[in-house]
C-alpha cells in the first residue's frame, strides 16, 4: 500500500467526485471517466480500451450505479495487469543473469542495490557488474550499494569497454558459483542505433559465456515522469529486447497509472515497483495488491 496514496487520490478520488450524486451511469459519465483515466497516466490506448469495455457492460445493464461502475473498472484493470504479471524466478537458472537498462536518473542503481540486498539476505550468492563505464559516479554508487549488501562489484576504470566488464563479470560469476549476476548498463540514449549496438554487444558476450543468458532484460522506468516513461518503454522495447520492467518512485507520485499503461500497451510484465529510497523499498509487483491499494 505504501506509496500509492497520491495515485489513489488522482484516480479513484476523482472518480468518486465524478460519481457524487449521479443517479445513473450513462455514456456521458463514461466519457468523463475516460478523461480521468487519461490524466491519471493510464495511457490513451488503454483508457480508450477500458471505456469501450465499460460501454459494452453498460449496454448489458451491468452498471446500475457508481459502485457497480467502480467495481467493473477495478475488474477490468486487474484483468489487464494479471494478463502480463509474472514475478521473476531467479532460481530457474544458475547463474541467473539480469541486464538492467534505462536512462540516467530513473533509479537504476538504487533498484540494483535493493535487489542485491534482498537476494543476498535470502542466502543467494549475488554479483554485480558495473558496465556503465561512462560515468565514474555510477560504478562508485554501485560499490556503495554492494558494500551495504555484502556483495562484490566487478568494475573497470572509467571509459573502459562495457563488454569487457561484462565478460569479466560472467567469468567471475561462473568461477564463484554465483546464483545471480546483475549487470548495470549505461543509460545513454543518444540514438536508438547506438543503444541497439551496445545492447547487442553485451547480450552477445553474456550469451557466449553463460548459455541461455541474459535471462532477464529489466527496464527501469521512473513512474513520476508519466508519459515520458511511456516513450522510454516504447524506444527501449524496440531497441533492446526488454523482458520486464521495474517502476520506481511510485511513492509520492500521482502517476501510478502508468503501471497499467506499460503492462497493457507494451505487454510487458511489471516485475518490481520502487516505493522509496531505502534498501527495503522494493516490492514484487502484485496486481491484486496494487488494485486493492488503488481502489481502497
Ligand atoms: P540511476 O541514475 O538510474 O542509477 O538512478 P539512481 O539509482 O541514482 O536514483 C536516482 C534518484 O532516485 C536517487 O536520489 C534515488 O534515491 C531516487 N530513487 C530511486 N528509486 C526510488 C524510489 O522508488 N522512490 C523514491 N522516492 N526515490 C527513488
Plain-language structure description:
- Strand 2 (126-131), helix 6 and strand 3 (152-154) form a beta-alpha-beta unit.
- The protein has 296 residues and is of the alpha/beta class.
- Helix 5 (108-121) packs parallel to helix 6 (136-149).
- The protein is built from 11 helices and 8 strands.
- An 8-stranded mixed beta sheet has the order 3-2-4-1-5-6-7-8, with helices on both faces.
- Helix content is 52%, strand content 14%.
- Residues 102, 104-110, 141, 248-249, 251-252, 274-277, 281 line the site of guanosine-5'-diphosphate.
Q: What sequence of helices (H) and strands (E) makes up the elements? A: HHHHEHEHEHEHEHEHEEH
Measured as a percent range, the helix fraction is 40-55%
Q: What is the C-alpha radius of gyration, as a whole number of Å?
A: 21 Å
Bound small-molecule species: guanosine-5'-diphosphate
Oligomer: single chain
SSE layout and pairings?
Blueprint: H1 5-19, H2 27-39, H3 44-59, H4 66-84, E1 96-101, H5 108-121, E2 126-131, H6 136-149, E3 152-154, H7 162-175, E4 180-185, H8 192-209, E5 216-222, H9 227-240, E6 244-248, H10 258-266, E7 270-274, E8 282-284, H11 287-294
Parallel strand pairs: 1-4, 1-5, 2-3, 2-4, 5-6, 6-7
Antiparallel strand pairs: 7-8
Helix pairs in contact: 1-2, 2-3, 3-4, 3-10, 4-10, 5-6, 7-8, 8-9, 9-10
Bound molecules: guanosine-5'-diphosphate (GDP).
Guanosine-5'-diphosphate binds at residues 102, 104-110, 141, 248-249, 251-252, 274-277, 281.
Short recap of the structure:
With 296 residues, the protein is an alpha/beta fold.
Amino acid at each position: 500500500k505504501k506509496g500509492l496514496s497520491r495515485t489513489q487520490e488522482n484516480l479513484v478520488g476523482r472518480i468518486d467526485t465524478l460519481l457524487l450524486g449521479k443517479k445513473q451511469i450513462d455514456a456521458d459519465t463514461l466519457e468523463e471517466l475516460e478523461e480521468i483515466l487519461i490524466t491519471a497516466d493510464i495511457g490513451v490506448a488503454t483508457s480508450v480500451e477500458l471505456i469501450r469495455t465499460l460501454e459494452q457492460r453498460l449496454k448489458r445493464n451491468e452498471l446500475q450505479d457508481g459502485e457497480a461502475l467502480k467495481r467493473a473498472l477495478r475488474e477490468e484493470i486487474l484483468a489487464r495487469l494479471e494478463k502480463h504479471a509474472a514475478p521473476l524466478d531467479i532460481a530457474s537458472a544458475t547463474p541467473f543473469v539480469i541486464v538492467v537498462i534505462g536512462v540516467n536518473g530513473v533509479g537504476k542503481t538504487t533498484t540494483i542495490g535493493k535487489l542485491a540486498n534482498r537476494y543476498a539476505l535470502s542466502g543467494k550468492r549475488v554479483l554485480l557488474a558495473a558496465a556503465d563505464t561512462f560515468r565514474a559516479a555510477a560504478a562508485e554508487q554501485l560499490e556503495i550499494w554492494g558494500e551495504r549488501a555484502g556483495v562484490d562489484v566487478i568494475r573497470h576504470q572509467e571509459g573502459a569497454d562495457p563488454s569487457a566488464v561484462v565478460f569479466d563479470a560472467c567469468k567471475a560469476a561462473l568461477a564463484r558459483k554465483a546464483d545471480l549476476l546483475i549487470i548495470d548498463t549505461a543509460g545513454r540514449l543518444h540514438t536508438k542505433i547506438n543503444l541497439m549496438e551496445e545492447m547487442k554487444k553485451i547480450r552477445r558476450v553474456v550469451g557466449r559465456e553463460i548459455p541461455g543468458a541474459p535471462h532477464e532484460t529489466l527496464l527501469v522506468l521512473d513512474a513520476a515522469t508519466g508519459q515520458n516513461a511511456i516513450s522510454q518503454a516504447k524506444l527501449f522495447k524496440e531497441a533492446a529486447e526488454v523482458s520486464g520492467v521495474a517502476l520506481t518512485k511510485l511513492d509520492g507520485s500521482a502517476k501510478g497509472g502508468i503501471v497499467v499503461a506499460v503492462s497493457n500497451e507494451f505487454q510487458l510484465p511489471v516485475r518490481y515497483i520502487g516505493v522509496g529510497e531505502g534498501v527495503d523499498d522494493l516490492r514484487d509487483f502484485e496486481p491484486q495488491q496494487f488494485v486493492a491499494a488503488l481502489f481502497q
